[in-house]
């Protein structure tokens, strides 16, 4: 039984905590959070110990793996604590908002030789995984154009936006990872354009809420990502890959397959509301993969280098938006 | 240039009249109708002569083919006039409401040796034709189950229902033809059940408006037809063919492919409203086929025997509904 | 913590056993099976005791509820044992192949006053539940026509067919339940027709493999069920409800939403392969509902009367098929 | 009866010629082409006079309108001839490859006060028109993101590519028009990136075959166009408009609605093969609109200014591709 410490009892921490507790091969030993009440409540529901001292949990000899779900600004420190304690690491994205800091972590983890995996949950979505497999297996021949659509149902609180690092580092970072993953190569040029259309408060906070990014690779493949912080019809997460032998499209998921034909037309369900619903199964698959990695049965599909690459693309997008011209990566 | 006389200037007569006038290989020479004004108006718009005397038009030596679109009770007489005058015949369904009278017509047409085709327009619908071709070419192996859905957007006037011969002879006759055509064999047993749910006036007129019929063949294939005189979302015309190697489904057509994703869900267009819209292209293809038949380039895909068979199935359904038990054909 | 005894460690027993073990409010105390090895293996994986003596498990005072997943011929006896021991009962369908025996059970359960629920899992499918809710809430006005399609990917072993009670009692019994549930009234007339098209061995065993049944209610609504023991494209489970204000359709589920556009056309995933995949979530919801019933939070959505009614319709279908005419219920 | 001269008997000239000949309110009086045989063949089939002298046809007093379908390098001259002769003008896109020359034409046409319409056929497509109507009527609130996909089934001959003005002026010009039309405002910034992936010969001819362009407007709306000269599954023409209240998507059209469920999955038809099939109805609607404009019943939906604007965007894309940075319009 693999004993795991969970650092952070917020929204995403609760998901991973529950999945760990329900996993037949894992045991949730610790839940820590800066908010003692939040940690205590989750730990109690899942039969774990709780506390506010992450270091104590991480260094507990019974703990073999650490799931880092605390706020972004603490990730790097937790990674270093865990690496030095020789624990396997699962860390939510992004690793840090500074590429330099990420590189320090990368060095520490490599030196420690511990297993580390980044929480790019979308790679574990059944539809995205099937599209990736189709592209990689040559089903559409040479990949030429990749179009990624990613829209949240609504914006996060302004308070979050102020500390998130901005849309590119916080939200599009998932899409940057998806693009590199499906392309099978790191883009070499990034052009970003963006607007503040959803909520003027976001603009006042220095961020944008509607963005379009074009990426190009050495081989000439062109990718495009469009993001919006608001989609009234739900969480819109789609990928279209076009190549010399055809096209693969991965669509949204719905709660049920019922359609109504009546006066207003033929009406189907909206996409599942948000990431908790859409990626519910993906989070379970992701955790299973992490456990397999810790047990030596698999190698992390989402490595610390992947986390670094996605952040590098986000940085390039930030610079392109500022300068108004494409940026080399 | 094939000169054609059109008998009947009502709704379906206007469709065929316009298609004849627009056809590069045909000329509409006559439009006749018991209503002189209706005939005159259509003839004038299409550059034809008009009158109330169908015989005169049929026997005009320049006329080589006759399109019979008058009321059902006149079909048999027109067929006989045209057959005796040696003209090729296109006749709207049903030939007559009496099987005996149909058989007389059949004998007359055979004796005269003229080309005759029944207006089973649905066979010329691109989707139904593709499904038929798929079944006949063995794409789903041995055909085992056939499910035909056919619902009108709304009931015809009560006056029409009183003289139509009832739902089985007037409306489901198309589906009986479709079923025999796709099965590739004449069903040998018919069970019908029905209700009066749409409009009590239809019940008072001695008819039903909601019906379900099960047909069985010697080979064990089972077909099912469901009809309703009302569907608030439009004209609902679908076929599902299931066999040992798979399933083919032919769906409705829409005016455009636009979908709206918003608060109410994902909303697509309703099916095209009624037969004029849905079978617009089919009517043109049907006329082309008739002209090809007259010119000796093709044999009628919808023969007078097909018209007889469909009526025989309708008769069996009427009897089954009366008796409450299945009827052998 | 609700302690449950599982009777039967076969395919369906394993599903329920795993769901009980994973449920935060339940504990799997016993697994029994006539096959000691099967019981032991499942019990060991799920942390339960095992044995071959169902009575011992049922009468264990710690056990508050019993899940009966053994072979059909033992259901009635298990129900009676559990009822007499005052335990809540979950029983897989059918209760028994004899209506008389079902009525005995019904009397015993009523007398004992215990909670009892039948495993009509399809009612807990998200799509079917949404369609049911739509119909019951009046979204399509008055329900007029109901069309249920239910095809298995392939036939069960001939040995199973010989003892199953036949297609109507074993397979279509689910659809009979669905039809009554959505109609909201018990049909009063049943007409069945069927063929042996899939495998001649099924015919030799005295059963049919392709069936179509028409049911009618007092209110004039007409339902139709079609079954096949084989569908090469997977498990085909669909419902179409048509009424005065529109139509609701519940379709199949797919493993992912990816489509491929290429030389062969636009290709989507096949339906999920069989009931284990399609109803995976429904089984969990069903168990949750059972536990809620035992805890007094809900009343069984699938009562023992529902089990009786479905069997009565199956009996009527068997008689109709034999006699060739519709049968009153 | 409106008499029309057709200039150019090539692929697109044949379409317009046939539609004019079949139109009840129009008569095709002339067909001219530099290739006398081509002109003669089409004229003879459609009952018109033929010749190689466009001026003669344009200046024929019976001719009230001119349809210019000759090669792009002759458009400007034909427009000027027709404008000076006081004839209504329908001209295929692009007007000319030089913006300066287009402006001269514009001035001449304005001075002459004749009706002029550009052949942006896609605006008359039922799906695109419905999407446009939805956006303009506020169905999705404020338009924020517009995504246009436009892929040809295969590249034109290299000879054509050499004189076409390149992908942006020849192919994407349609999409530039669509974008401006749906945005309801002219974009102010254009960024283009492109590759040569389909055929090296295209690269040798100095052109690209895979392109992605991002356009931005004053209001902050962002549009994106992706083009490919080859799509093995057919002509791929889609639009997605996203706004504050939802999303509208216009998809491809198929020859029929049949789907096959079998071993390979659920297979539907490919998109209609190419523009002749996809825009067949749009060409008829477009001609009807032109005739309405000539008769004073409507104002050209696709004005000469629209033609100029689309070319200006193409020019900007060409410059952006060369310079590697966004270009202001």
Automatic annotation (TrEMBL), chains A, B, C, D:
SUPFAM superfamilies: Glyceraldehyde-3-phosphate dehydrogenase-like, C-terminal domain (SSF55347), NAD(P)-binding Rossmann-fold domains (SSF51735)
UniProt EC number: 1.1.1.18
Alphabetical keyword list: Oxidoreductase
GO MF assignments: inositol 2-dehydrogenase (NAD+) activity
Enzyme class: oxidoreductase
GFO/IDH/MocA-like oxidoreductase domain: residues covered: 128-248
Limits of the Gfo/Idh/MocA-like oxidoreductase N-terminal domain: 3-120
Entry-linked Pfam families: GFO_IDH_MocA (PF01408), GFO_IDH_MocA_C3 (PF22725)
Alphabetized InterPro entries for the sequence: Gfo/Idh/MocA-like_OxRdtase_N, GFO_IDH_MocA-like_dom, Myo_inos_IolG, NAD(P)-bd_dom_sf
Alphabetical list of PANTHER family matching this protein: BINDING ROSSMANN FOLD OXIDOREDUCTASE, PUTATIVE (AFU_ORTHOLOGUE AFUA_2G10240)-RELATED, NAD(P)-BINDING ROSSMANN-FOLD SUPERFAMILY PROTEIN-RELATED
NCBIfam families hit by this protein: myo_inos_iolG (TIGR04380)
Family note: Belongs to the Gfo/Idh/MocA family.
Name of protein: Inositol 2-dehydrogenase
Gene: iolG
């Amino acid at each position: 039984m693999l004993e795991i410490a969970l650092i952070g009892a917020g929204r995403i921490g609760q998901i991973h905590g529950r999945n760990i507790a329900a996993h037949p091969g894992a045991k949730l030993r610790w839940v820590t959070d800066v908010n003692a009440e939040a940690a205590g409540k989750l730990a109690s529901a899942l039969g774990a110990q709780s506390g506010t001292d992450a270091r104590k949990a991480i260094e507990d000899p019974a703990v073999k793996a650490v799931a880092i779900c605390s706020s972004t600004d603490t990730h790097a420190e937790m990674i270093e604590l865990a690496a030095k304690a020789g624990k396997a690491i699962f860390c939510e994205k992004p690793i840090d908002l500074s590429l330099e800091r990420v590189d320090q972590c990368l060095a520490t983890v490599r030196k420690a030789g511990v297993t580390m995996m980044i929480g790019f949950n979308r790679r574990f979505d059944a539809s995205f995984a099937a599209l990736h497999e189709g592209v990689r297996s040559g089903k559409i021949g040479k990949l030429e154009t990749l179009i990624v659509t990613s829209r949240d149902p609504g914006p996060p609180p302004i308070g979050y936006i102020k500390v998130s690092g901005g849309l590119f580092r916080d939200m599009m970072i998932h899409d940057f990872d998806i693009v590199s993953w499906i392309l099978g190569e790191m883009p070499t040029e990034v052009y970003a354009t963006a607007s503040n259309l959803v909520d003027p408060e976001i603009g006042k906070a220095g961020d944008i809420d509607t963005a379009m990014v074009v990426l190009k690779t050495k081989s000439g493949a062109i990718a495009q990502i469009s993001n919006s912080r608001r989609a009234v019809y739900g969480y819109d997460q789609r990928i279209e890959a076009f190549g010399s032998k055809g096209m693969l499209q991965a669509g949204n998921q719905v709660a049920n397959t019922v359609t109504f034909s009546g006066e207003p037309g033929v009406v189907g369900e909206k996409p599942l509301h948000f990431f908790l619903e859409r990626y519910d199964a993906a989070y379970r698959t992701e955790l299973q993969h992490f456990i397999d990695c810790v047990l030596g049965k698999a190698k992390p599909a989402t490595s610390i280098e992947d986390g670094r690459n996605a952040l590098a693309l986000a940085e390039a997008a930030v610079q392109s938006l500022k300068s108004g011209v494409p940026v080399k990566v």
